[in-house]
Each structure stands twice: as C-alpha cells, then as structure tokens.
Amino acid sequence: MNIIRPEENAILIWNLELARTAYVSGEELTSLDHWATGFDNPFSDRLEKLGVISKANKQAIADAIQASTQIKAPTNSFYAPESIHIELTEYCPLKCPMCYKTSTCSELPIDFLLDIIRQAAEMQVFQIALGGGEPLVYPELLTAIRKISYYKMASTITTSGVGLTYERIEELKHAGLNHIQISLNGSSEAIHSLSRDGFNDGLEALKTLQKAQISCGINWVARMDNIDDFPQMIELAKACNVDNINILRYKPSLGEDYNNIALSDEKILILEKYIRNAKGIRLKVDSAFSNLRCKLNGRTSFMSGCGAGRRFLAVSACGSYMPCSHVNMKERPLEHSNHLHHVWRNSKNLAMFRNLGHNISSPCSDCIYLHGCYGCRAIILSQSEDFNAGEMHCINKHKKHGG
Question: Is the pTM of this model over 0.85?
Fold first, then answer.
C-alpha cells in the first residue's frame, strides 16, 4: 500500500510493505509529473521496479504534485512529521550496561497517547514507533496499536524481547502491529552482554517471530566491542529470516566512557565495507549515523541527514516533546502541549535543529556533506556546551567545499 503526501514543492511516497519513504523533489518531481500524465521515463521506471509506485498511484501523485505548490513547511523540515517516536514507559525489567535513561518510572497516560495518535493521523503522519523503556510492559499497548491501525498508520515496537511469547505476538498482530525490532548487540551472549542484558530473551524472540510470520528486524548498536562480530550478526539475522538490521550509532550512556566505546574512524570504515559487501539482508543505517550514510551514498539529500525535528519528533513518557529521545537540551525547557500541529510548527527546540545548517561550526560548516548530515547533537552536547558545535571526529572531515 502506498500513501502519497504533498510537501513544499515535493511529495512523499510511503510504502507500508517496504517500510520505506521516497522523497521526490526538483527534476525528479518533474519526471514523476510527466509519468502521472502519461509519459514513462527512467526515474519512474526505477520507482516502479522498486515497488515504490504503481500505475494505481497516478492520479494520487498528480493531485499531490499540484497541491505541493500550495504547501508551506517550517524551515528545513517536512510540513508534518514522517514518523513520531513515542516512549510509552521508562520502566524496563533489564539492566543494560549501555542504557542512557534516567528512569523515574514515568508512564504515558493513555488518554494523552490516544489524542497524539488522532492528531498524527490528521497531519498524515505515516508511522508511529512505540518504545520505552520496555514497551511490552505498557498496560495499554494493544489499545494504542488498535488505534494506530484504525487511523491506517503503521505501528512498530522496539523491544528487548523479554516476555514476547507466541501468544503475545498473535495478540499484537491481531491488534494491527506492522513490525517488531529486537534489540540485539551480538551474535553470542558473550558479546551481547558487554552492552545489553537479555541475550536469550532476544534470541528466543527472533525464533518465535519467525514462526509467527510477522515482519521483524534487529536493532544493532555499532560499538568497539562488537564491530568485529557484525558479519556473524548478519548470518544470525539471515538464519532467523529477519527483514532488516537497523545499524544504530552509539550515543553517550550513563555508565560508559563514550570515547572508549564509540567506533574509531578506522572501525567506521570497516563497517562501511561490511555494509557494502553484505548479501541477502537489508541493512538500514540510522539517521544519527549521517556521516556514514553520506559516505555510503557519496552525496547528500534531504533524507540522508539527522532527521530530528525535521522528519520526526519524539514524545517522552512524561508527555514532553523532544527532537530526539537521546538529546539532552540542557538549558532549554521541556515542551508540553496538547496540540501536536502547534509543536511541530512553533517549537523552539525543533527550530534549533532545523537551523543547524546556518549556525553550525567547523569542521562541519566547511564540509561538502553539511546539508545531508549535521552531525549528531546527542554526541555533541555530551562533549560541549555549544549546541552548534561541529563534530571534531568524523570520517568525512577532510571533504571540504571546493576541495
């Protein structure tokens, strides 16, 4: 199923089965407009082969292209979020060494959650990502998933897998859940336990998900202590028939030394080789790994850089809105509101992310990948008081404008 949404001089095409968003603007938008009015071309042919569009979408795409000339989005962002990341609860039964949460065991009130879902549907948000803490312990999880499904949005959960029985998976499927990501940082308990708890829970969950035949993937955080195990992780993922591995950038955590855990430049380049050489599995690189994404693509695009505040926003278990759940805004006040549309258009915290391209310092300000990257503010703010500081350690820092 494809959902087509107009943006400012662009359109978004969301494919539910592929869980993939296509952002089309500029010359590509002109090519798609020609296709919608009856003229095939290489660009539209490629999208059709990828399953992003079909002949049935022609009228919807033509209408969206026409509407896109009337849309006015906030600076450097979508008119509405592509996805919303919701922290249902801060509680988790596991004790992971790399956890970045300071838990007060807050839990999102169900009435507030259901109202966010309703407003998200009105704004044509594509996907609601449910997390925690551990989302499986949230008592109203099925209620939330049913409501997301009712509004024809996609729902995903990210879980350790603890307590994820076959019967529970069937309940989630029946409620309308589209996809489950299992957090797993190693192909063996010895490697996984260096950063996460619950290896056996995660592994058993993957096996059970395979039997239940529901779309699933693995969330894998790239670290110095598991990078050499990544080829084995790929083989484990293929053996469990998962749909994807989501490669996450390590962000600062409470009990670890970031400088000893984060990948060195040398190891990031090794990860790049692993990704390029992988066969038989879909690998997705998290937007916080924007420097790696730019290197893999060899170019920048609106979709390649950090999406915090531009393509998505997060909601904490205490009901505050954030550009990203990993970012401590420090001196900025938490933002609470009952009006999602107002937050998206007027949030001062989101505006700081959207204006990074104008305010960021070197070496990022001189980099050819600036407008497809922006670095990771969670990392920057753990090392500096300056929100607009550039990332000093980056595999792309030598790529200068005009160089």
Answer: yes
